[in-house]
Known about the structure:
Mean pLDDT: 93
Distance between the termini: 25 Å
Order of helices and strands: EHEEEHEEE
Largest sheet: 5 strands, antiparallel
Number of strands: 7
Shape: globular
Structural class: alpha+beta
Helix content: 10-25%
Amino acid sequence: MNNKYIFVYGLLKSMYDNEPAKFIRKNCTLIEEGSIPGMLFDLGTYPGAVFDPSSSSLVFGEVYRIDQNEEDLVRFLDEFERVGTQFKQPNEYIRKMVPVTTNNGIIEASSYLYNWNLDGLKLIESGRYENQKGNRG
């Protein structure tokens, strides 16, 4: 990632107790909530965010500071999000730097963004994802 912050908006948020969310909390510190311009879609059992700097809608999530094990964290999250040449191409997600608006200004953070066709997907108009189980299908 070559960056000390990550923005999460779905199953990796602090409210979830799945292994990837625990791994983030083990290696990172939750800084604060934030948002990016764009749209959030319901993909069934997990969400997908699309960053769009010209959008009037927002995707809400959390900003973490990466404190340790950045390479392990990236490898683990790339596997969870199925990012890399070993997965179906094009990947469902891409890892990208985004400007996250927080109460303390803008923080540049890495995030996993949805990368497939949006046709037929259900928009989450609130920009907030909450799945009771907190597990990816």
